[in-house]
Amino acid sequence: MPWEKKDTFWKWATDNSGMEQVGTVYTAEGFEFDYIGVIFAGDLVYDAAKGSWESVPSKSYDSQVKRKNPDLTRHLQNVYRVLMSRAHRGVYVHFMDKGTEMYFRNAMPELSHSSGTLRNTSTHESLS
User: Fold this and answer.
1) How far is CA 128 from CA 14, 52, 53, 93, 124, in A?
2) What is the Cα–Cα distance from 42 to 96, expressed in whole angstroms?
3) Which residue, 11, 72, 119, 125, could crosslink 18 as a Cys pair with Cβ 3.0–4.6 Å?
4) Which long-range contacts (CB under 8 A, 24 or more apart) does 75-80 make?
5) Which pLDDT does position 3 carry in this prediction?
6) Chain centroid to CA 47
7) Which helix (H) or strand (E) holds 40?
8) pLDDT, position 121
9) Contact, 104 vs 118, CB < 8 A?
10) In what order do the strands lie in the sheet with 117-120?
């Protein structure tokens, strides 16, 4: 699927013609959906050995992320929090990093599991 089109970026969220597009955190803000899918990319990973979150700018395609940002990890945590809070009924999350996926699976065992994707279909339950 292509990313949102620059000239009609809003259509992915508001118009049937946008169903073949993928939105970003910047265009998801302010919208709420029954369900949403989030790709948890490799730009923010959980390091189990250190017990902390780490940002990986080289794994991001976001120009705002690639700028020198002393609070990049906190910024990315907020980005994913915003994305995963856009749904009323359920959130589907696909993890690119297996360590991050395991962190979520261990922290939230009540979630439905399938290979590479976490699914929460309980009303108002957050993945943050």
Assistant:
1) 25, 15, 13, 11, 12
2) 6
3) 11
4) 76/43, 76/44, 77/44, 77/53, 79/25, 79/44, 80/38, 80/40, 80/44, 80/128
5) 56
6) 18
7) strand 33-40
8) 46
9) yes
10) 33-40, 87-95, 117-120, 112-114
**88 is written with which tokens?**
């009323």
- The full length of the chain comes to 128
Contact between 118 and 105 (Cβ < 8 Å): yes
Tokens 């907020």 map to which residue?
A: 78
At residue 53, what is the residue type?
W
